[in-house]
Structures are given as C-alpha cells and as structure tokens.
UniProtKB/TrEMBL annotation, chain B:
The keyword DNA damage does not apply. The modification 4-aspartylphosphate is found at D63. It holds the Pfam family LytTR. InterPro entries: CheY-like_superfamily, LytR-like, LytTR_DNA-bd_dom, Sig_transdc_resp-reg_receiver. This is LytR/AlgR family response regulator transcription factor. It comes from Companilactobacillus huachuanensis. Residues 153-247 form the HTH LytTR-type domain.
Length: 445, 247
C-alpha cells in the first residue's frame, strides 16, 4: 500500500500525540520514571501508530487500547488506583488539548481545514502537534502549581475521593471520545465539531462541580470521624484519672485501718503484732502508688493531637504490661503547623517500639519530649531482643521490615514526612540492647 | 591546658572525702595540669564562679539535692550546660529516680555515681570519670580531627566514624550512616561532598568515606565497612572506585 507523502506527517503527528500521553503520565507519577518504561512507551507508541495507519476507520478505538496496553506494560510501585487515575487523566488531557488545538487552527486558518497539497498538510500537522504539546504542558504546569499551593495531597490520599475522581475522568473520556467519533463518523462539518467542544466543556463543568461537592461532603465526614476519635481518647484519659483516684482512695482507707490496728497493738503491748503492722505500713508504698510526676506535664500539653496520640499509646503500652516512662518537658510547646506531622510520626514510632519491646522478656518503653531554646527533641527508646540485629542502614527504605506479615511501609512513610519538612532531623541509634529514635525539630526562625 | 575541678556537695564529711580522692588523683597524674578551683556546699558559689570564669575547662562533681539552699542540683546543672557546652558534669547522688531522659538529654552528664555503692567504689568511678575528662580535655571541635556537623544542636560527629551518605530517589534529604547511628538531614549530596573533600562520590546516590572501606565484595557488588556494615553499589562503579582507592 502506497502511503501518500502528507500521510507521513499525519503518522508522525499521531505518534507524537500518543507519546505525549506517556510524557504526561511520567510527570504525574515520577516513580514510574526508568529506562525500561521509556523504551516500553516508545515501542507501544510505534505499535499503535502502525495500528492507526491500517485501521483508520476507528480512530478512537486505539486510544482505549493504548491505555489498556500501557496500564498492563508500564510497571511502577504506585497503587493500581493511582495508575488508573493517572492514565485516565493523561488520556483526557491529550484528547482535550488535541480538540482545542484543532479548533484553534481551524478558526485562525480555515484554509487548512481540508488540506489539498502536501505542504498544507505538513503545516497543519506541525501546528497541531506544536499546539497540542504547548497546551498539554501548560495544563500540566497549572495542575502542579495548584497541587503545591493548596495542599490537596492529604485529601487525595482517601480511597473514596480517588474512586470518584477516577469515575468522573472515565465518564469524561468516554463521553468525549464517543462524541468525537460520532462527528467524524457521520462526517459533519466543523460547526458541529465546535458544538461538540462546547457541549464537552459544559459537561466538564457539571461533572467537576458535582465531584468536588461530593469530595467536600466526604472530607467533612472524615473530620467528624477524627473528632469522634479524639473524644474516645479523652474518655480513656478520664478513665485513667478515675482509676488512679480510686487507688488513692483505697490507699487512704487501708492506711486508716492499718493505723487503727497499730494503735490497738500499742494498747495490747503485743510486740509481734506491732512489728508486723509497722512493716506492712512501711511496705505499702511499694504496692500501688506510683507517682507519675512526669505525666502531669503530659496532660498539660496544649497540643491536642500530640497529647491524644501520646496518651493513647501510653495506655496501649500499659495495658500490655510494658514498663513505661513518658516524660514531657513542662515548658514544651508544639509548633501548631507541625502538629499533624508530629502526630503521624509519633504514631508510627511508638507502634514500632511497642511491637519491638514486646518481643523481649521485660519490655521497656521510654518517651521524652524535650524543649530546648531553639529546637524540640522527641526521643523514643525501647529495649530490643539482644540477638535482634536491626540493620539501621535499611530501616527507612520502603518495604524493609523485620516483622512477619508486614509491608514495612511505616518507617518509609515516616521518612516521607521527615523528608518533606526542612526542619526535621531524624536519628536512630542501636546501643546496648536499646533502640532509640531521636527527632529534632527546629523552631521557626 | 588547666582542668578546673569544681565540687559542690552539702555534706561536709563527704566533701572532704571527695577532695581527698581528687587530690590523690592529681598527685598520681603529675603530667596533667589540674586543680580544685572550688569545693563548696553552697550551689550559689558555683553560680558566682561560672559568672566570673569564661573560657576555662571544667569538671563538675555535683550533688543533686541541696536541702539548705533554694537552688536544685538539676537547675544548677542545666544552667552550667547552657553556659559551657564542653563542661564535664558528674552527679553523685542518692536520688537515682532523677535519672530521667529529659535531664539526660538536656545536661548530658558524663556519669551518675550512686552514694550507696560505698566509698571505695565511688573512688574507682571518680577515677574513671577523671580519666575520661582528661582524654576529652580538648573538645572534639578543636581536636585535630575532621568533624561533620548538622542540625540545630549542632550534632558534631568525627568524620572517621561516618561510613557513607546516601540519598534516596525522589527525596530531598540525605541519610548519614555512621558506625554509631543513622541520621537523616535536609541537605544534598553535592553540598556535603563540597564540605567533605576526602569523601568519594561512588554513585549517583552514594558518597562514601574511602578511609572506612574494609573491602569490596565483587560478587554481591557491595562495599563492606570497617564496622561490618555494608552498602550496595552498582557493578559498573566498582571499577572506578577501585581505581580511586588505589591512587
């Protein structure tokens, strides 16, 4: 089959627009950047360009196939849903920019709408490709800037939000492609093409408003859940206070009884009884009352999130009979902008420490929050099984774990948090059967 | 270098005894310049001494509780540490419950000596602590050792303890692996390499300390360090590294 010369320009345009798809995808998911994926993407592009040349009757079918093929071939460590969203988003962006590009060209240079000479067609396709890339990169830049400016990433981490975004993207894609093929199939003129684009923009506006409203209501739900959790933590705190109050009352009661019996013994002048009563009284301090002086500072901590996680983990450790010592410096102030990050970090570290020390015979867990003039220090220290050789070289790498049936993601996500904050320094030491992690946070200058 | 020894203990008998121990230590070590600058039962005297003497090298022997004075040993130690980051502080106390993490990190005492262990054992421990103090007479930053420091404290580590720095993909911070610990800091390998000219960029993501390399494991393409830890390195870079080491 002889291919006319201007068709080559069209083929190159086709190839470049499918390649744009991959460029956008690699930008959204940087973890997928590697040599193998680059080579694979070029191969896929070539295959589908060939496919397009030989079956030009269904121009949009290949767009779907290319997405499916690339989803199966391009491997990265991201979650499936993230990949799906990124592919749908890339496809949508490419198709939209293509549509916008063609409209722009047709409205500015109407003579090019039906290229008769090869030069005309070459100009048309070069312009088309150029506009396509330019628009795509502009949108991509806008997307990245908005993502940086408004911290959406926290909301985007929710599964339901992700699913709703994916569904709306898929609907938009199918809608656009089917409308597009319909206009091409019945061979209507450009006014209809313009109409299509207008309809599509209206749909985009509708779908995005409804999705964002849905996301907004969902985020509200998440917040209520958080408040409920805080309330239950407050409950455990109150219960703990009641318990220690009870112990104190019991002590008072027993103390009076003992004194009473002591005075009785004195009256009887019975030396043996007297001695044993006195001994009982003397030994009493060892029985129940442990004065948690440091804990008052913990309860006085004004950051609710950090206090919540510390109290709940302290309760958890106590309920598992771990010997705990939680100290909080009395003038410690948590910078409110780091409150969420610190809470997440402490949750991960304390969970790990509790798990690790439970493997020893006499589990011990110490925590300290220390305030210095220009920085804060969090120390989590626990004892570890002596023959446990934790390879501190690898603890922060994603997937490294010493626990069975664990993904090893805790410390890796901790690393992500530390990494995204310039004021955080994290240090780990493994010394004399004790494993300690020290987090230093500079106070804002 | 003169090592000033400061004793603060409210029990007269014990103070005289500590004085004797230290005097005999001084006599046994004629090569080192030492003197007992103050021996007092009143912590205020120590405060006054601190205000007057600025750049002396000091060794403190403190009790924790001073019932007759409003000043607590802990507050005294914290204020000493604030004024003098190189001071060696040894606590001699009956209050072992005061050995808390907060206190430990804030004051960084050289040692705790419990009074209950008996006078002989106290003497032995005191001797050991003085040995350490003399060994560290010159602070780490002024010794003829290359150091690397980071963080707000700042945390100072001799470079000969560092095995390698590593940057993970898509991260903005660098992880330091030393024979003592692992630490993460917001920095780039490039700027660290500029600060540590003796280190070698063995890999895009690794900056090694050639002085600490024990061997190169060709089979598993690993670098093995003197303390037994190891790190991965690409096979291709091994050849270049070997050339660099043999130079």
């Amino acid at each position: 089959m002889a291919i006319p010369f201007y068709n080559i320009a069209w083929i190159i345009n086709d190839f470049l627009s499918s390649f744009l798809l991959f460029i956008i995808y690699f930008h959204i998911l940087p973890k997928s950047k590697n040599h193998l994926n680059y080579i694979l993407s070029v191969i896929i592009c070539i295959c589908f360009t060939v496919f397009d040349v030989f079956s030009s009757s269904f121009p949009n079918l290949s767009s779907f196939l290319i997405i499916i093929a690339s989803f199966l071939c391009i491997k990265s460590k991201d979650k499936v849903i993230d990949k799906l969203i990124s592919w749908a988003f890339s496809l949508f962006l490419v198709t939209i920019t293509q549509g916008m590009g063609s409209i722009l060209i047709l409205s500015i240079l109407p003579t090019l709408s039906n290229p008769k000479t090869s030069i005309q067609s070459i100009i048309l396709f070069v312009l088309l490709t150029f506009l396509n890339y330019l628009l795509a990169f502009t949108f991509l830049a806008i997307y990245k800037i908005t993502l940086k400016k408004f911290d959406f990433s926290k909301f985007l981490n929710d599964l339901l939000v992700k699913i709703s975004i994916l569904v709306s993207l898929i609907i938009l894609n199918i809608f656009y492609l089917s409308l597009d093929s319909l206009t091409k199939y019945i061979n209507m003129d450009e006014t209809y093409l313009k109409l299509t684009v207008i309809i599509i923009f209206i749909t985009i506006i509708f779908i995005s408003t409804s999705t964002s409203m849905f996301i907004y209501s969902h985020v509200k739900g998440i917040r209520t859940n958080l408040e409920l959790k805080q309330e239950s933590e407050r409950d455990t705190y109150i219960k703990e206070l009641e318990k220690s109050n009870d112990e104190l009352r019991k002590f008072k009661h027993d103390y009076k009884n003992l004194l009473l019996s002591l005075s009785a013994s004195i009256n009887n002048k019975d030396d043996k009884d007297l001695k044993s009563s006195v001994e009982k009284l003397l030994n009493y301090e060892q029985i129940n009352i442990e004065s948690d002086n440091h804990l008052t500072a913990l309860y006085k901590l004004d950051d609710k999130l950090v206090k919540g996680i510390l109290i709940s983990k302290l309760m958890q450790a106590k309920s598992k009979n771990i010997k705990t010592d939680f100290e909080v410096d009395k003038d410690a102030q948590i910078p409110s902008n780091y409150s969420v990050d610190i809470t997440r970090i402490l949750g991960i570290l304390l969970d790990n420490a509790i798990d690790a020390c439970l493997e020893t015979d006499n589990p011990e867990l110490d925590f300290a929050l220390i305030s210095f003039d220009n920085y804060l220090e969090f120390v989590v220290k626990n004892n570890v099984k002596s023959n446990d050789s934790i390879n501190t070289n690898n603890v922060y790498k994603s997937g490294y774990t010493t626990k069975k049936n664990h993904s090893g993601l805790g410390l890796a996500s901790l690393m992500d948090i530390v990494d995204s904050n310039k004021d955080f320094i994290i240090q780990t030491e493994n010394d004399n059967g004790y494993y300690s992690t020290i987090i230093t946070i500079s106070k804002g200058k | 270098m003169l090592l000033n020894i400061i004793i603060c203990e409210d029990n007269d008998k014990l103070r005289t005894y500590y004085n004797l121990i230290i005097k005999s230590y001084i006599n046994e070590h004629p090569g080192v310049e030492m003197k007992v600058s103050i021996s007092t039962g009143n912590p205020r005297d120590v405060n006054i001494y601190m205000d007057n003497q600025n750049d002396a090298i000091r060794f403190f022997l403190l009790d924790i509780e001073f019932p007759d004075s409003g000043i607590k040993g802990i507050d005294l130690a914290t204020s000493i540490r604030k004024l003098d980051s190189n001071a060696k502080i040894v606590f001699i106390t009956t209050h072992e419950e005061l050995m808390t993490l907060i206190f430990d990190r804030k004051v960084e005492p050289l040692d705790y000596i419990s009074k209950e262990i008996g006078l002989k054992a106290i003497k032995k421990k005191l001797y050991q602590d003085l040995d350490v103090a003399i060994e560290r007479l010159v602070p780490i930053t002024e010794r003829n050792v290359d150091t690397f420091e980071f963080g707000p404290k700042p945390y100072v580590i001799p470079t000969n303890q560092i095995n390698y720095f590593e940057s993970l993909e898509y991260k903005h911070s660098v992880i330091m692996h030393s024979s003592k610990d692992t630490a993460n800091m917001p920095d780039t390998l490039q700027s660290i390499a500029a600060r540590l000219p003796k280190f070698y960029r063995a890999h895009k993501s690794i900056l090694v300390n050639p002085a600490n390399i024990e061997s190169i494991d060709d089979k598993r393409s690993k670098l093995v360090f003197k303390d037994g830890s190891s790190c991965d390195i690409s096979r291709r870079k091994l050849v270049e590294l070997r050339k660099h080491l043999n130079r």
